[in-house]
Amino acid sequence: MSSMFTPCANSKLKHKRDKKQTETRCWKEEEEENHGNDMLENPSLEGGLIKKTKLHECDESMGPKEHGTAMVGLAGIPGGPCYQGSKGGVHFVLQKASLVAAYVGKRYQILNPDEHANFLRRKNKNPYDYRPDIVHEALLQIMGSRLCMAGRLCGVFITTDEGILIRVEPNTQIPKTLGSFCNMMAELLQKFSIKSKGNRGKLLRLIENPVTQHLPVNSRKIGLSISSPKAVQINDYVAAANHDENLVFVVGAMAYGKIDAEYVDDLISVSALPLSAGTCLRRICVALERNQKIH
Predict the structure, then answer these.
(1) Using an 8 Å Cβ cutoff, are 164 and 206 in contact?
(2) 74 CB contacts (<8 Å, ≥6 apart)?
């Protein structure tokens, strides 16, 4: 008798075991999916959820040896589209930004004097040449301006002191703290791009030099430098600009030195005193907002 019912019993046990494994697998997949969504939607998580990763090789000497590719989900914000009215748009170019990355211990990090002073001294580097806080403050001023909120900003470009060119879309959410910002930029240098939540486009990406090939044809490129003999009142200067042109403001994002003025159409000074990049950009944004009646 036992031999007659053994196949049936084994079949029932196998069916129960398969059903249990299927339920367990489904539960795990649902848990992972929910956990992943939480990571994508939580802006406090630095860098978001990495969906595909291939780290490049890098040692403690400055910079990467070989780049990889990845898609990174980063919580973005809904921003206004590039202004498409009769007036020209506005672009900013932040030159010579200090975004130097290296492995410090086991972490790939953007170097800054507050956290990596000892590391930089061991490499015979001046810690105060590494100032990612300057470009961080500059981006906060631009992205937090009413000009950007009103959809009049068309794009921001960053050229690093190592020759890397980065495009920042107007709807990019810039982290408020320097640590989170450096983590985001370290991810960008490793992965080439950072996408918004839901993969609805790239917020930041590395692009090919020179920056001039990415600027509109009908654009007026304006450099800012305290050493320029042409001192202007920025409100009057913006008001006198041709409204059909795309205005491109080129501002230095370094602690000291001059911008690369080879491709600018006009080099101006807006103050007799040296201004930080953030202060200079705030003046420009306020002047543009007044001229375009953005309240």
Answers:
(1) yes
(2) 47, 48, 173, 184, 194, 195, 196, 197, 203
Q: How far apart are CA 59 and CA 104, in angstroms?
A: 9
Tokens of 176: 């408020």
| 3-state SS class at 156 | strand
Query: What ranges do the domains of the chain cover?
Result: 1-41, 54-291
Question: Which CATH code of 3.40.1280.10, 3.40.50.720, 3.30.70.360, 3.20.20.80 fits the domain covering 54-291?
Answer: 3.40.1280.10
Please answer whether residues 97 and 160 qualify as being in contact, where contact means their C-beta atoms are separated by less than 8 angstroms: yes
Task: Give the model confidence (pLDDT) of 215-261 as tens digits.
Answer: 998 899 999 999 999 999 999 999 999 878 899 999 999 988 889 88
Contact predicate 62/100, CB 8 Å: yes
197 and 72 in contact (C-beta within 8 Å)? no
